[in-house]
């Protein structure tokens, strides 16, 4: 994406990853969405135009995402699916990690609501966290690289990795680092490191968990009023204009739709500067944010 051409952004905008594959710039998050709520949310998201869904093994809803996609009428090839492997607290065997990664395939790749037969693929496979240490990270990454070499994980990356974790990671370079990002938690050192190395930056919690204190911040409210937009829409537009890939989560149809209405306005340099100035560093995080883990 050309960050100097943000006015041309649309719901169909994508970014080319180092592999040559493309990833839609706006994703739909399903953290803490369960059962019928998850299935209905994903189907509504696909109905209004999302083509990127972000799940994780730890969310325990991959099978609901797969069922929603199978029932949606949208072709699997037209949807970018991400999942994540959550490491344990000891150094595992590579084969054990690989076996755990494989469990996502039948959950996400379904046909007419039935579980898959083990075939299919994931567009992006992430290591969910850098725990418990460098030796384990090397094993986790080797298992992911094996999945990519076999073709069923099209791209691989990481989540919640700090600069030190990224620097020590063996080849291949991650396609993506998914971290908490919003004006109050900008993680600038990590972002800079990733941008310099062609690692796409995904923003989770881009709406700061809809914390009323954050959404009521006078700066954000003022910028939103200026553009006739909701504070949540300004936060997502800020993320897009920074070059990030935001992953808003909602199970409310009106909000799912509103989170796509980002392309009829543009934040000017002054707006961006005001929002950038809200950064509180690590203190601004609103979730589990282990970027400084050992």
TrEMBL record:
Q: Please report the stretch or stretches of sequence annotated as the NADP-dependent oxidoreductase domain.
A: 37-280
Looking up InterPro entries in the UniProt record yields: AKR, Aldo/ket_reductase_CS, NAD(P)_OxRdtase_dom_sf, NADP_OxRdtase_dom
Q: What is the name of the protein in this document?
A: NADP-dependent oxidoreductase domain-containing protein
Organism listed in the record: Vanrija albida
């Amino acid at each position: 994406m050309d960050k100097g051409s943000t006015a041309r952004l649309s719901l169909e905008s994508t970014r080319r990853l180092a592999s040559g594959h493309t990833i839609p710039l706006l994703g739909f998050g399903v953290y803490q969405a369960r059962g019928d709520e998850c299935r209905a949310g994903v189907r509504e998201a696909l109905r209004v135009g999302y083509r990127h869904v972000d799940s994780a093994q730890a969310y325990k809803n991959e099978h609901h995402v797969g069922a929603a996609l199978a029932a949606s009428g949208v072709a699997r090839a037209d949807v970018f699916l991400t999942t994540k492997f959550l490491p344990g607290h000891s150094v595992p065997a590579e084969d054990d990690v690989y076996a755990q990664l494989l469990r996502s395939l039948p959950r996400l790749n379904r046909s007419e609501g039935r579980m898959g037969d083990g075939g299919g693929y994931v567009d992006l496979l992430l290591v969910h966290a850098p725990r418990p240490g460098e030796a384990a990270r090397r094993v986790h990454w080797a298992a992911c690289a094996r999945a990519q070499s076999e073709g069923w994980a099209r791209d691989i990356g990481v989540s919640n990795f700090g600069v030190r974790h990224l620097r020590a990671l063996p080849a291949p370079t991650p396609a993506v680092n998914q971290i908490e990002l919003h004006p109050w938690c900008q993680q600038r050192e990590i972002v800079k490191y990733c941008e310099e190395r062609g690692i796409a930056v995904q923003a989770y919690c881009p709406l700061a968990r809809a914390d009323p204190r954050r959404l009521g911040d006078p700066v954000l409210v003022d910028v939103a009023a200026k553009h006739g937009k909701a504070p949540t829409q300004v936060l997502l537009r800020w993320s897009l204009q920074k070059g990030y890939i935001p992953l808003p989560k909602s199970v409310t149809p009106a909000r799912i739709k509103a989170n796509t209405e980002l392309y009829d306005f543009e934040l000017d340099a002054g707006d961006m500067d005001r929002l950038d100035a809200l950064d509180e560093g690590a203190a601004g995080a609103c979730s589990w944010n282990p970027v400084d883990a050992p």
